[in-house]
Structures are given as C-alpha cells and as structure tokens.
Write a structure and sequence with these properties.
The chain is mainly α. It is built from four helices and no strands. The longest helix is centred in the middle third of the chain and has 80 residues. The termini are far apart.
Length: 159
C-alpha cells in the first residue's frame, strides 16, 4: 500500500501573493500615470514657451513695420508740404496782386503756406492727434466734411 503524504502545496499565486501582485500593479499604473502627466505638463510648458516667443517676435516685427510706415508717412507728408509750398508760390506769381481776384488769391496762397508749414513741421502722430481732437470737438461738421470728400472722390473715380 502506498503511503500518501499530505503536504501543503506551495504556490506563489496564493492569497498573499495575489494581493502583493495587485498592489505592485497599482503602484506601476500610478507611476506610469505620473510619468505621463509629467510628460504632458512638460510638453504643455514647451508649447506655451514657444507660443510666447512667437508672440514676442510678432510684436517686435509689428513695431518695426509700424516704425517704417511712420517714417514713410512722415517722408511723404514732407514731400506733400513742399509741393503745397510750391503751389502757393506759383499762385502768388501767376495771379494778379490787385483787386478782388488778387485778394482771394492771396488768401488762398496764405492758407496754402500755413498748411505747408504745418505739414513740414509736424510729425504723423501729431497730425493724427490733431485730427482726432478736431473730430471730437466738431463731430457733425467732421461727418459732413467726410461725406463731401467721399462724394468728390467717388465722382472723380467714376469719371
């Protein structure tokens, strides 16, 4: 007759081993989640930094462009001022100095001279501020003048 031994089976997957394995899986999952979150945070910070840098570059380029436009506008205004001055001088030379026509021509030439000096002495930003001040002070008249100028430009473009 064979003798049977009842020895307890040793198994790594017993109740204690299963709990330990499950605990290790949870820690491993948490570590992976932390790593992923950290990686995502790093990428988000890199993207934010890159976006900030690009925005700063765009702002710098915009300032440069605005500065160049301001210089070009100032140069163009100076040229216009010189042309107005030339027109005033031509008007004084070619129109009679006496009588009603002479008085009217002198007034127009004086107005042109004043405008020419203003344009040559002021920079573009000062002119914009002056125009804004006049529009705020005389809003109805400004709208009417704008409509009149628009009408004249439209009429000229249609011809």
């Amino acid at each position: 007759m064979a003798h049977q031994h009842n020895h307890p089976k040793q198994c790594d997957g017993g109740p204690q081993g299963a709990g330990s394995k499950q605990s290790q899986d949870q820690v491993s999952t948490l570590d992976r989640a932390r790593d992923m979150a950290s990686s995502a945070m790093g990428k988000a910070q890199d993207l934010a930094s890159s976006a900030t840098e690009r925005a700063q570059n765009l702002m710098s380029q915009s300032r440069d462009i605005a500065g160049n436009l301001g210089e070009k506008a100032g140069s163009a205004l100076s040229s216009v001022g010189e042309q107005i001055h030339t027109l005033a001088s031509t008007l004084r030379e070619r129109v009679p100095q006496e009588g009603m026509l002479g008085s009217a021509a002198a007034m127009v030439a004086d107005g042109l001279e004043t405008g020419s000096q203003y344009i040559q002495e002021q920079n573009f930003d000062d002119m914009v501020e002056d125009v804004s001040t006049v529009i705020r002070r005389y809003p109805i008249q400004s709208v009417l003048i704008g409509m009149g100028v628009g009408f004249l430009v439209a009429k000229t473009l249609r011809s």
